[in-house]
Structures are given as structure tokens and as C-alpha cells.
Amino acid sequence: MDIDEIPTSNEAFSSMLKQAIENNQIEVAKNLIHKHDGIPIEDDIVRASIYAGSIPIFRTLLAKMPDILNENHDRRGTTLEIALSSQAPSEFISFLLSEAGADPKICSGWTLSPLQSAASFYETPNMVRLLVEHGALVQRSGALALAARKGRVDTVRLLIELGEDVNDTGPGLVPVFPAHCAVKYRQLEVLKVLVVHGANLDLRDSKDRTVLMLADEMGYKEAISILQGKA
User: Fold this and answer.
1) Which residues in the chain come in under a pLDDT of 70?
2) Which pLDDT score, from 0 to 100, does residue 221 have?
3) By the 8 A CB rule, do 26 and 53 touch?
4) Could you tell me which residues the ANK repeats occupy (predicted)?
5) Considering all CA atoms of the chain, what is the largest pairwise distance in Å, rounded to the nearest integer?
């Protein structure tokens, strides 16, 4: 592709750049970004580079537009939030945190926080550990309930080990208790871990149900046995 002969209209430029990013044509994308200073790079291009998880391409964009790192992208979240919610590879997340300087404590309010996404979307606890190492705050993060919902037993253990309250309701106005989530989504192994670590079984959800009442309502016999100390 001869970059110098590419049409300079915004639409043509955006289309070609987005295609290069999506096809992982790294040098083409970098040349387009470098040689077309007069054309604005739209937010959908930035998001495409995040979804692609290409470190060289995003590094090039970031050098020209430093503000894209922590800004809210069209109400979809910050760069780190979008990357985590799309399950970007750990190498890309490490780049955002270590080299680019993304702050895992920044939450846009439009999507899950970085720590919540790590606890919910990643099967192993490694991403949670990485975020905490770079400053993510565990207490009252709401990450434990999300990990419980998805049955991430190892992540649940890690969050508790790192100091998360086993009864954490998260930052929302409506309480969402980890034990209730474990029962509601039938995550028996998670429930066992929460009970062993002292989950308060007397707490009531937004429908005034204890976790035992919820299990009974569901006919969830295995959970009832655990909650009654019979398993």
C-alpha cells in the first residue's frame, strides 16, 4: 500500500486505518497515523486499537494523543476498562499499566470497574493480582460478588486473601452479597469458600431474603446443606 497516495478525506482515512488495525497490519497502521497529522482520529479508531490489543499500534496512537489513556470512550469506559471487558491479553494489560501508566483506580461509571472486569471475565486470578500490584483497591470494590457469580473459586480466594470483606456489597446502592450471588447462580464451590471464611448468613438481600431463604426458595438442596452446616 502506498501511504502517500491514500485519499486524505476523513472518511477514507478512518476506513483504511480501522481496516489496518483490525487486520493487524501494524506498519501500515503506524504509517497512516504518522503521515496524516491533519486528519482527526475518531474514537472508534481508538476503540478498534484497544480491541485489537496491539501494543505497537496503541503505543503510536498514545504518543500522538496522550489523553486517550484515561478518557471515557463514547460512554464505553476508559481504555483499561474497555480492554479488560473485552478480555484483552495480559501482555496488553501489562503494557497499559506498566508503560502507558493507566490507573486501575479510575472508573468511568459507564461499565464495570477494572477490578470488577478482571474478577468477572478472566478465568484465573492473575489479572486481579496484576491490577492490585498496580494500585487497584480491593475493599468495597464489588469484585468478590462478580467472581462468586461466575464461579471463579481461585479469584474469590485471592480477593479474600488480599483483604476483601467476605460480605462486601460493592459500591452500589443496592446490596449484592457474594454468598447470595453464589447461591443464585448455583456456584457451590464458591459458596463453600465464602462460608468457611465467615460469610454472614443472616444478611438480607433487596427482597429481604437471607441466603438460606434464597436457597430454599430455589430448591437448592446442596446449598441448603452447606448453609445448615451439614456438608
Assistant:
1) 1-8, 38, 173-174, 230-231
2) 97
3) no
4) 139-171, 178-206
5) 75
Phi–psi pair at 122, nearest 5 degrees: -105, 130
CA distances from 115 to 100, 110, 146, 187 (A): 18, 14, 10, 20
Question: So what's the pLDDT on residue 72?
Answer: 83
What are the C-alpha distances in Å from 98 to residues 130, 164, 200? 10, 24, 38
d(CA 181, CA 187): 8
Please state the three-class secondary structure of the chain as a single string: CCHHHCCCCHHHHHHHHHHHHHCCCHHHHHHHHHHCCCCCCCHHHHHHHHHHCCHHHHHHHHHHCHHHCCCCCCCCCCHHHHHHHCCCCHHHHHHHHHHHCCCCCCCCCCCCCHHHHHHHHCCCCHHHHHHHHCCCCCCCCCHHHHHHHHCCHHHHHHHHHCCCCCCCCCCCCCCCCHHHHHHHCCCHHHHHHHHHCCCCCCCCCCCCCCHHHHHHHHCCHHHHHHHCCCC
Per-residue pLDDT at 34: 84
Q: What is the pLDDT of residue 6?
A: 55
Residue type, 149: R
CA torsion, ordered 211, 122, 142, 212, to nearest 10 deg: 0
| Cα dihedral: 171, 172, 175, 181 (round 10) | -80
